TrEMBL record:
Belongs to the germin family. May play a role in plant defense. Probably has no oxalate oxidase activity even if the active site is conserved. InterPro entries: Cupin_1 (IPR006045), Germin (IPR001929), RmlC-like_jellyroll (IPR014710), RmlC_Cupin_sf (IPR011051). This is Germin-like protein. GO terms for cellular component: apoplast. The lineage of its organism: Eukaryota, Viridiplantae, Streptophyta, Embryophyta, Tracheophyta. Mn(2+) binds at residues 88, 90, 95, 136. Pfam families: Cupin_1.
Length: 196
């Protein structure tokens, strides 16, 4: 929200509160505390011993209720060597990524019909922007761990991980749809769906 209606709106789940802004009930500003605007979760490295070798630790309105209506959030991204934050999109936010440690190959794909890849290798201190809604990824191309901080232009940017959404939906997308969309055999679709 670019022009807030009040100084802040600390999100609460108490429906007895009378102010309702941006999908959340607001805490009475008179009882807001410093902890409503605080989160210590980015101190701790994320667990990267998983299939993708990466972990995203968000700091959005779910972790920091005081972010409600402020239009910003952060995420810490930890990567094992060769770890991947897979192709995904934030439909409600632009992302700006800063590398704190390691070397990342990052990129995004422009919209149809061009579907052009815009990509670059980033080093410690480098910054890269991913426009709102475009599919993008981060890959650690180094032999050591990597860490980045992503700032996002929404207190609740949302995320759609492409492979999870397409091959891991519940219920599953029909193999007829996926075989035609990806121009592959049903065995390939069955295999990919079995991975999610």
């Amino acid at each position: 929200m670019s022009n807030p209606l009040q100084d802040f709106c600390v999100a609460v789940n108490d429906t007895k509160t009378t102010v309702f802004v941006n999908g959340k009930v607001c805490k009475d500003p008179k009882v807001a505390t410093a902890n409503d605007f605080f989160f210590s979760g980015l101190r701790v490295p994320g667990y990267t011993s998983n299939k993708l070798g990466s972990m995203v630790t968000p700091a959005n309105v779910a972790q920091i209720p005081g972010l409600n209506t402020l239009g910003i959030s952060l995420a810490r991204v930890d990567y094992a060597p060769y770890g991947l934050n897979p192709p995904h999109t934030h439909l409600r936010a632009t992302e700006i990524l800063t590398v704190l440690e390691g070397t990342l190959y990052v990129g995004f794909v422009t919209s149809n019909p061009d579907n052009r890849l815009i990509a670059k290798v980033l080093y410690k201190g480098d910054v890269f922007v991913f426009p709102e809604g475009l599919i993008h990824f981060h890959l650690n191309v180094g032999k050591t761990k990597a860490v980045a901080i992503a700032a996002l232009s929404s207190q609740n940017p949302g995320v759609i991980t492409i492979a999870n959404a397409v091959f891991g939906s519940k219920p599953a997308i029909s193999a007829d749809v996926l075989t035609k969309a990806f121009q592959v055999d049903k065995k390939v679709v069955d295999y990919l769906q079995s991975q999610f």
